[in-house]
Specification:
This is Peptidase C45 hydrolase domain-containing protein. 34% of the residues lie in helices and 25% in strands. It has 363 residues and is α+β, with helices and mostly antiparallel strands. It has one domain: Penicillin V Acylase, Chain A. The strands form two sheets. The protein has an eight-stranded mixed sheet. A hairpin with a 5-residue loop joins strand 4 and strand 5. Helix 4 packs across helix 5. It is globular and about 55 Å long.
């Protein structure tokens, strides 16, 4: 998997991304052009028009994100609107439209004090298998903001990763019936990773700033000794946020809405909630509880086992493509990531962890 080291102004960071990740950017554009049209009957011109509705909100949120996307477009030799579409792809794909529904699957897990002394986040990202060819690891060094190490799709400037202040984030897509023209999910993820503190990260996603629904599992270890970390699940929406899940050092989220507050304003459109998302959530919780009751230490190696779990396959934590569901819902684990925020360490497996291996990504 290609790793890009990006440094300088927002525009320069974007140009380096587009220039050195051009093949991955073009692959993403091809994937989403086919996907939008095949499942939503939205052509690329219409996708650009939808994406442009978010432009004003992004400019107000952080103009440097606009400059970085402009740089990606310049480096890759495509239009700015093409890159804007990629960064708005969840809003185009997941919210506010009728007809066949498709979404990322994902199982995200966090374990932190008081359960263990470290703070560890892990997740499988489930999506269309062909997007393995678009994956990039970005190491971003930017002025007046934390350094970031992030796994993303070519052309998308915010996704799953951690920063030099020990703050990390995972993503669970939520499929709903409403969206707004505010900040797209993936740029909200970048806003989190641009934050120095947990409080700053939360300020980037509250009060309806995010255009569509998702769950952001955010963790931080402030690095002042063992036991000085925390993880929180925030379901975000155009109508505000809510913190969900247990508070005893363990958190799990998959792809259905947990918050009664969020459900007051949005309908959960996940048609496979019970036979897929809910089972993955319960299974992950079961694995954590079994480790606790057995007295086994919970480490990065434990996360590897959990994320490789095949219970209820193909709809398992280690997700396989399910040939018995409609094509638009045939997702598989594209990558698996473990982030030890206490040690500032990232482990990454491309493809299904039950079939592959994790390698450490230097930060």
């Amino acid at each position: 998997m290609k790793k890009l080291v990006l440094e300088g102004s927002a525009k320069k960071i974007g140009i380096q991304h587009g220039l050195n990740g051009k093949n991955e950017v073009l692959h993403s554009l091809e994937t989403y052009e086919k996907l939008f049209y095949g499942y939503r009957q939205i052509n690329w011109k219409e996708a650009k028009e939808i994406a442009l509705h978010h432009l004003n909100a992004i400019e107000k949120y952080d103009f440097h994100l606009i400059e970085e996307m402009e740089g990606v477009a310049e480096g890759a030799g495509v239009d700015f609107e093409d890159i804007l579409v990629l960064n708005t792809r969840s809003e185009i794909a997941l919210a506010g439209y009728k007809g066949p529904a498709f979404s990322d699957g994902c199982t995200a897990i966090a374990v932190s004090p008081p359960l263990i002394s470290e703070t560890i986040l892990g997740q499988n990202w489930d999506w269309k298998g062909r997007q393995k060819e678009s994956l990039l690891t970005l190491s971003i060094k930017q002025k007046s903001k934390p350094d970031i190490t992030m796994v993303t799709e070519g052309g998308i400037i915010g996704k799953i990763g951690l920063n030099s202040h020990g703050l990390g984030v995972c993503l669970n897509a939520l499929l709903t019936d409403k969206k707004s023209n505010e900040v797209p999910i993936h740029l909200g993820l970048r806003g989190i990773l641009n934050s120095f503190t947990l409080g700053e990260a939360i300020s980037k996603i509250k009060d309806g700033q995010i255009a569509s629904a998702a769950n952001f599992l955010i963790g931080i270890d402030e690095g002042k000794g063992l036991g000085n970390g925390m993880a929180l699940n925030f379901e975000v929406s155009p109508f505000g946020i809510d913190s969900v899940g247990e508070n005893e050092g363990k958190l799990v989220h998959t792809n259905h809405i947990l918050s009664d507050v969020i459900k007051q304003n949005l309908s959960d459109m996940n048609e496979y909630k019970f036979e897929d998302s809910m089972i993955r959530k319960r299974r992950a919780e079961q694995l954590i509880d079994f480790a606790i009751s057995s007295g086994d230490p919970i480490t990065e190696e434990t996360f590897k086992i959990w994320l490789s779990d095949e219970f209820n396959a193909p709809n398992s934590i280690n997700h396989y493509e399910n040939s018995f569901v409609p094509e638009h819902r045939r997702m598989e684990t594209v990558f698996s990531i473990i982030m030890n925020l206490s040690k500032r360490r990232m482990l990454l497996c491309i493809g299904k962890p039950a079939e592959g291996y994790y390698e450490e990504i230097s930060l």
